[in-house]
Amino acid sequence: MALKRIELFTDGACAGNPGPGGWCAILRFNKAERELSGFQKLTTNNQMEMTAVIEGLRALKEPCHVTVYTDSQYLHKGFTQWMNQWKRNGWKTASKEPVKNRELWQALDELAGKHQLEWVWVRGHAGHPENERCDELAREQIMRHARL
After folding, report:
1. Active-site annotation, residues
2. Residue ranges of the alpha helices (H) in the chain?
3. What is the DSSP string of 80-113?
């Protein structure tokens, strides 16, 4: 049986880096959409970008073919280019430093094992409708919870 094809649009935002942060994921299956978003009191932009993908994947109830759209080069390159080497090196970078955000990378790696992931990088703040919507909802979480 063919896997369901899901589109996962994501973004993270932070007021300060570190600071209060928000994330958003939009899941789309055919014409149905589900928006998810959340807040963390003290985090970084990269952590929010990663959390958006993790939470989007966690929301799926069965294995799927997921096209992940992100404006984060860190997340895109980390998953598609760097992570396999980090794992081979015991979660150390090429310069033998511990990988930052290791717990999030490991959570993402575990979730990715349940799905077929395809990654698409999109330019942030360039009019991509779903990326703009994710940015809006992530920032809304910060404003709602951080009292900025």
Report:
1. 11-12, 49, 71, 125, 135
2. 45-58, 73-77, 83-88, 102-112, 129-146
3. IIIHHHHHHTTSB-TTSPBPTTHHHHHHHHHHHT
The residue type found at 144 is R
CA distance 71 to 88: 27
> What pLDDT digit, counting tens, does each position of 54-102 carry?
999 999 999 999 999 999 999 999 999 999 999 999 999 999 999 999 9
Place of tokens 């077929």: 116
Tell me if residue 66 falls in helix, strand or coil.
strand
Contact 69, 53 (CB under 8 A): no
Q: What is the residue type of 76?
A: H
DSSP 8-state symbol, 31: T
- At 36, the amino acid letter reads L
